[in-house]
Amino acid sequence: MRLYPPLLSQRIWVQKFGKGFTSVEVKVSKSFLNKNYNHSIFGGTIFAAADPFYALLFDQILQRRGFKVRVWLKSAQIQYLKPGRTNLYFRISISEEEIAEAEHILKTVGKYVKAFPVEMYDKNGLHCVSLINEVYVRNLYTDEKSTIAY
């Protein structure tokens, strides 16, 4: 992921994926490439950092459990609480309960939509950004166990 051009050019670094893609730790490095007029990290960079990861985690988790899915970020809300004047960090994780809920809904309804939080902190632990990402997951399999047709 570090070499993926949209992330690389914005200085967004995946530091670590958790076992089975159940979590991810991300660093947004402040640099001349993403610094705004006020010498803080550009809001678009911050937004871009949070965009792909819930969808990526759900996609990897569910594929590993035998689902064929289409996943994307359906909507997002962001609040910039403090300027990102240093590097920003965030960690997101998906619990076994959330995975089980998604699997159940995908097997019975066929699509799963849920909002998840992302909180970003600077290197001093100052809470700088709060986001809500709404993830959309569609089960692409159609079989006799499904209660709906896709």
Protein model, in words:
- The chain has helices at 5-8, 43-50, 53-64, 96-108, and strands at 12-17, 23-28, 69-80, 88-93, 111-122, 127-139.
- It is of the alpha+beta class and 150 residues long.
- It has one domain: Hotdog Thioesterase (Thiol Ester Dehydrase, Chain A), CATH 3.10.129.
- A six-stranded antiparallel β-sheet has the order 1-2-4-5-6-3.
- Residues 146-150 have low confidence and may be disordered.
Topology (elements, then pairings):
Blueprint lengths: L4 H4 L3 E6 L5 E6 L14 H8 L2 H12 L4 E12 L7 E6 L2 H13 L2 E12 L4 E13 L11
Key terms:
single chain, 150 residues, alpha+beta, six-stranded antiparallel β-sheet, 4 helices, 6 strands, 25% helix, disordered C terminus
**SSE order, one letter for each helix or strand:** HEEHHEEHEE
CATH top level assignment: Alpha Beta
Termini separation comes to 32 Å
Number of discrete helical segments = 4
Q: Which architecture name does CATH use? A: Roll
Beta strand count: 6
Question: What's the CATH topology label?
Answer: Thiol Ester Dehydrase, Chain A
What is the domain tally?
A: 1
What's the rounded overall pLDDT mean?
Answer: 90
Bulk shape: elongated
What's the main sheet like? 6 strands, antiparallel
Query: What low-confidence regions span 5 or more consecutive residues with pLDDT below 50?
Result: 146-150
Structural class: alpha+beta
Arrangement of strands in the largest sheet: 1-2-4-5-6-3
Q: Percentage of helical residues?
A: 10-25%
Oligomer: single chain
Q: Give the strand content.
A: 35-45%
> What is the CA-based Rg, rounded?
17 Å
The CATH superfamily is identified as Hotdog Thioesterase
